[in-house]
């Protein structure tokens, strides 16, 4: 019926054409008051001859249609060019989808704000884009909670984070590990003042022990796990407190706390800040799982594989770019491991259990 009315100029067809015209939709795609909600039929069929000549359809120029239009035959040319336009529009849509996947949105949970992210990770971004062919778009966050919410909302694709944070991302969103960013000598310790009478972890029973950031792998969970292995139960055999490192050191000197749980880097920082108060390591834990670049489950597997391969094949170049910034010194002498699996972080899940946490879908607050 529609095809016959295009050719016949009957009163009925003329009336139908009148009813279908109505008011044109606004720029937002919503018709004005009193307008019919049906779009004009010609718009539904595809570009008209005028649009083809002007090259206004889907951003395709008129030259793209010229091959399909026999000279002097507008009617036949319209039918052929409509099919050509449809094919080009489909191809354009597929191309746009592929282009969109070439840009990945990247966040780091322990770098706060865009300015710091650009400064600390700028050299890495340039190197990674060069070796992978992908474009990196920085997504600044103010911490792990913001990062996981951003991934849940579909705003970020890849996040560089710590082992404990990975466990939460995985439990809540099914985020998967892509590649580890290895940290040499990454372990936790319990330290006391060198003059302290404590000689074993059991000597800390009944005292206060300071941890760093709550929920941190190396400053909280791992030290608590070391104590648990020695038979000291969290919150029962000692009182956990959370103090900033320098404040904790001052409390240790004053005798207000018995020990501090922290990692090797922090021990070095305290030794530099308090050279007259030497520390003694009472107990040291095993090597910890490394920081990890994780991917949202919404990222295409082919993109994840491209990222993984870029690290596997260009590790030294990427590490040099990362460690060219002093802020990333913790990765000096490290590297990347591309065959990481979720099971590599089961030990961190046991650390959560050492502080009484058995559900991992939320950060410890």
Question: Could you explain how this protein is built, in words?
Answer:
The relative contact order is 0.13. The strands form 2 sheets. The protein has a 6-stranded mixed β-sheet, with helices on both faces. It has a 5-stranded mixed β-sheet with strand order 7-6-8-5-9. The chain has helices spanning 2-7, 11-21, 41-45, 49-54, 63-66, 74-101, 114-132, 144-152, 163-173, 217-229, 245-254, 264-273, 301-313, 315-322, 346-354; strands at residues 103-108, 135-138, 158-161, 176-182, 188-193, 208-211, 239-242, 259-263, 279-284, 291-295, 335-337. The protein is an alpha/beta fold and 365 residues long. Helix 7 (114-132) links the parallel strand 1 (103-108) and strand 2. The chain is built from 15 helices and 11 strands. Mean pLDDT is 81; it is low at 1-100. It folds into 3 domains: 45-101, no CATH class; 104-185 and 289-354, D-Maltodextrin-Binding Protein, domain 2, CATH 3.40.190.10; 197-267, D-Maltodextrin-Binding Protein, domain 2.
Features:
D-Maltodextrin-Binding Protein, domain 2; 5-stranded mixed β-sheet; disordered N terminus; alpha/beta; single chain; 3 domains
List the helices and strands and how they pair.
Blueprint: H1 2-7, H2 11-21, H3 41-45, H4 49-54, H5 63-66, H6 74-101, E1 103-108, H7 114-132, E2 135-138, H8 144-152, E3 158-161, H9 163-173, E4 176-182, E5 188-193, E6 208-211, H10 217-229, E7 239-242, H11 245-254, E8 259-263, H12 264-273, E9 279-284, E10 291-295, H13 301-313, H14 315-322, E11 335-337, H15 346-354
Parallel strand pairs: 1-2, 1-3, 6-7, 6-8
Antiparallel strand pairs: 3-10, 4-10, 4-11, 5-8, 5-9
């Amino acid at each position: 019926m529609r095809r016959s009315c295009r050719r016949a100029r009957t009163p009925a067809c003329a009336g139908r054409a009148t009813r279908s015209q109505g008011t044109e939709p606004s720029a937002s795609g919503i018709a004005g008051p009193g307008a019919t909600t049906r779009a004009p039929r010609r718009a539904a069929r595809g570009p008209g001859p005028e649009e083809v000549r002007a090259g206004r359809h889907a951003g395709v120029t008129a030259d793209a249609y010229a091959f399909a239009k026999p000279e002097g035959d507008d009617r036949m040319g319209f039918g052929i060019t409509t099919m050509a336009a449809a094919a080009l529009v489909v191809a354009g849509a597929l191309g746009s989808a592929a282009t969109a996947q070439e840009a990945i949105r990247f966040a780091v949970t322990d770098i706060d704000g865009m300015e710091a992210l650009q400064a600390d990770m700028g050299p890495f971004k340039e190197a990674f884009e060069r070796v992978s062919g992908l474009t990196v778009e920085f997504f600044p966050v103010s911490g792990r909670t913001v990062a996981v919410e951003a991934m849940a909302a579909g705003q970020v694709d890849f996040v560089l984070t710590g082992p404990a944070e990975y466990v939460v991302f995985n439990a809540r969103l099914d985020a998967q590990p892509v590649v580890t960013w290895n940290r040499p000598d990454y372990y936790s310790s319990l330290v006391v003042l060198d003059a302290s009478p404590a000689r074993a972890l059991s000597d800390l029973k009944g005292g206060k022990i300071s941890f760093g950031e709550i929920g941190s792998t190396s400053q909280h969970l791992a030290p608590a796990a070391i104590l648990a292995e020695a038979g000291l139960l969290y919150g029962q055999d000692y009182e956990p407190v959370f103090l900033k490192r320098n404040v904790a050191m001052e409390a240790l000197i004053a005798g207000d706390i018995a020990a501090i749980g922290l990692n090797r880097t922090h021990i070095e920082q305290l030794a530099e800040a308090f050279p007259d108060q030497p520390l003694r390591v009472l107990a040291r834990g095993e090597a910890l799982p490394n920081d990890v670049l994780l991917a949202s489950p919404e990222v295409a597997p082919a993109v994840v594989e491209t990222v993984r391969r870029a690290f596997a094949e260009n590790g030294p170049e990427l590490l040099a770019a990362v460690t060219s910034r002093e802020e990333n010194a913790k990765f000096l002498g490290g590297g990347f491991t591309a065959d990481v699996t979720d099971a590599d972080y089961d030990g961190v899940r046991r650390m959560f259990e050492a502080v009484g946490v058995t559900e991992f879908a939320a950060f410890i607050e």
